[in-house]
Amino acid sequence: MSEMDKKAMYKLTYGLFVCTAVLGEKKNGCIINTAIQVASDPNLISIAINKSNYTHDMVKESKKCNISVLSTEAPFELFKHFGFQSGRNVDKFANYKKYSVASNGIPYILEGTNAYFSLEVVQMVDLGSHTLFICKPTGMEVLRNKQSCTYEYYQENIKPKPEAVGVTIEGETVWKCRICGYTYVGEELPDDFICPICKHPKDDFEKIVK
Fold it and tell me: What is the SS3 assignment for 78?
């Protein structure tokens, strides 16, 4: 009988990317960890975006986007800016200037990146929590010769180490998201709980003990 040790999921390797889109006058972007070449003839790239992200809706409607490949030089503030807030509530490009615009009219990120791809959606697959977009590249460019940032590198070298938390003054238990550091106070974490910041489920939370 096989075991279901969900920690095995952390052994899968991922890159990290900023997916950007434009819809009307709105520019937006979010952090994704799935962008891979799935075919060479024709050349196709797949990306998966959580449906709770506003960027998801923009890509679904516009049928195009850019992905900027994050490098090991990417600062934590870049992850916070594009990953820890929603484009439904803020304009992520209002005061952000470290980008250029590709020929498809969509921004790509210049800070902490080593390449970008302009993509046109040719197929969409509903995966439940995410949509898988199969895309053909319409443009691509190497920006600098720096190593790409893996999810493991982000966890070990970029994301700040969690502070010791434990329990509140009132003695309540604290749960911390392993992905973004969001904390939830309560003895038990609801089974259907979704992190309001990075959208990860209960399995990515750990009980913090002093």
Answer: helix
Cross-strand bridge partners of residue 168: none
- Which one of 12-16, 46-50, 172-176, 198-202 scores highest in mean pLDDT? 46-50
Tokens standing for 107? Answer: 């921004």
What is d(CA 78, CA 147) in angstroms, rounded to the nearest whole number? Answer: 17
List residues bridging with 100 in a β-sheet: 108
**Residues pairing with 176 in the sheet:** 183, 206
d(Cα 88, Cα 184) in Å, to the nearest integer?
23
Judged by average pLDDT, the poorest of 90-94, 119-123, 130-134, 166-170 is: 166-170
User: Domains in the chain, start-ordered, CATH in brackets?
Assistant: 6-155 (2.30.110.10), 161-210 (2.20.28.10)
Report the b/e string of 141-150 with b at 16+ CB within 10 A: eebeebebbb
Stretch (H or E) spanning 108: strand 107-109
Q: Is the distance from CB of 172 to CB of 187 less than 8 angstroms?
A: yes
